[in-house]
Amino acid sequence: ADSGVFVRAVGDSIFLRGWPGSSYQVQARDMTRNQTSNPIFIGNIYRHGQRGTTDTSFDSAAALQASKKTGESQLFEIEVRGDRLTASLNGAPVLNAENLANPSGYIGVQGEAGVVEYRSVLIRELN
Fold it and tell me: What is the pTM of this model?
């Protein structure tokens, strides 16, 4: 299924299909069925209604290597600090994005086009 984790969602507008506008999403899409870059790779960033520049470095080879099979749990570690977002997938660093527009916002989970399960979601405030 196609899914992801929203970060820095402002919540003041709607982007497509009810998703929060003015937000960023770390993609959690099942890569075993479609390994093209469209839609976006697992671990990469998707900007929902965000204008401006986000400097992004994404390692697609590391994401494909780290991605587990359908039915197995994926471990994401996502850190958003200041204007920077980093993400690792199953222990492998895959994403570094800088110049995020929103200084704060909500966190959310998204799922579409199939069954998605989340478990053991831990959120920690950083100093």
Answer: 0.84
